[in-house]
Amino acid sequence: MTHEEITLAPAGITAANLRELIDTNLYMPFPFQSNPHASRAATGVDKWLAKWGLTDEPEVAAMISRTRPAELAAYNSPAMDSGLLQIMANQIAYQFVFDDRAEDVGRHEPGRLLPMLCESVGILRDGQPPDTLLGAALADLHRQVQERCTPAQAERWAWTSREYVHGLLYEAVSQTDSVPLESGLCRSIRSLIAGVEPFHPLCEAQQPFELAPEEIRHPAVRRLARLSADAAVWIADLFSAVKEQRTGGMVNLALAYQRAHRCSLPTAITLAIRRINSTISEFEELYGETRPELSPAGVGYVEGMAGWIRGCYFWSRTVPRYADTTVASAVP
User: What's the CA gap between 324 and 314, in Å, rounded?
Assistant: First the structure.
């Protein structure tokens, strides 16, 4: 980010709060959509979490109420059938529970994080039996994916889920280091803990037939997957920046800009929006160039990636988890 670019952000702000600032400046070419099975998925999530005892703790139940995982799934995948949507909603709920617990443990007692992460890797890689309630929920989620997806899709799901688990260890290291996290490292860790790419195999499973290996490994398709995940999670970072700043979070794109340039949060958010806008524009352009080469299933697969960009925006702007954005001033 050059000095000239920094001086452009933001002048003559008229937004009343940070949400208005984001709404005004973020490029969002994908219109709002929602899955008609959203209410059923929300009921299913509550039952599934209760079955595995994950909402027995009042604070976890309150977090799920503020987070609305089925709503995020519905916005991301408006055309997905009810069975697959339920798996996605369960997985989103699980990842929020797991991520919040891992962040809390990693920040205060890093040594206790290792058994938690190793249990997850053992379940996903080796099919080991779980030792905890969180592990039991993950094993059940893995079973659901294996029953609905092809073996290759289920293996891709497990591999990307393991990458997400490993990323949580890097996040814990960054939280305990006294040296402020550099912007490039922040983005690298964020790409691991985004938790978006484990859902791409579910987008593939929604298609009428499995993608050929050469289509999955196509350089443009792999790049689209990266752009989709980055844009989706960075959008959530814009809306979660106030919460993360209050709780001492480090791995957040907007806060990384704030640390790097010693600027106000509204200025940092504006700079982050510019990076997100360029990422979404690159996704659009590359998809337009690549689409003629893709099979119908490949097109549907990439549309699922685009859905995550759209869904994370429309979910983040109204979800109670990020309500602080509506009361934080947009004036630097």
Answer: 16
What does the pLDDT look like over 287-306, one tens digit per residue?
A: 999 999 999 999 999 999 99
Q: Identify the sign of the CA torsion 316, 319, 320, 321.
A: negative
Query: How far apart are alpha carbons 70 and 68 in whole angstroms?
Result: 6
Rg (CA), the chain: 19
Report the candidate in 88, 90, 67 with the shortest Cα–Cα distance to residue 79.
88
Phi, psi of 35 (to 5 degrees): -75, 135
Are the C-beta atoms of 75 and 310 separated by less than 8 Å? yes
For the chain, domains (ranges, CATH) are: 3-326 (1.10.600.10)
Answer whether 208's CB lies under 8 Å from 301's CB. no
Q: Which two tokens stand for residue 159?
A: 């591999």
Asked whether 269 and 254 are in contact (CB, 8 A), the reply is: yes
Q: Report residues of the chain scoring pLDDT below 50.
A: 1-11
Sorted by sequence, the CB contacts under 8 Å of residue 81 that are 6+ apart come out as 37, 206
> What integer pLDDT is reported at residue 6 of this predicted model?
44
Q: What angle do CA 193, 308, 294 make, to 5 degrees?
A: 110
* Residue 128 burial by Cβ neighbours in a 10 Å radius (0-12, 13-18, 19+): middle
User: What per-residue confidence (pLDDT) applies to 177?
Assistant: 67
Among residues 73, 8, 22, the alpha carbon closest in space to that of 242 is found at 22
Amino acid, res. 145? V
